[in-house]
Design goal:
78 residues; single chain
């Protein structure tokens, strides 16, 4: 599972950040296609999905970063 931060700067320099979680890259690709109008969605998804935690990738006034990478499955929560 990946938690991905998607940050966009608006015209008046406000910052809008969305944090979304995905179990696999296919769900992330579907999310990008449904909610954004990027060119080269597959290339963008591959670059973002393979980022290390804490690094960022910028495209079209958006900044993508990985907040966490966790194993998807049964997790013990206390």
């Amino acid at each position: 599972m990946r938690r991905i931060n998607i940050t966009r700067k608006t015209a008046n320099l406000d910052t809008i950040r969305h944090t979304v979680s995905f179990r696999n890259k296919d769900k992330f690709i579907s999310y990008l296609r449904d909610n954004y109008s990027f060119h080269g969605v597959l290339l963008l998804a591959n670059k973002v999905w393979n980022l290390n935690v804490g690094t960022k990738y910028q495209q079209d006034n958006y900044t993508f970063s990985i907040q966490s990478k966790a194993r998807a499955g049964n997790q013990l929560v206390l």
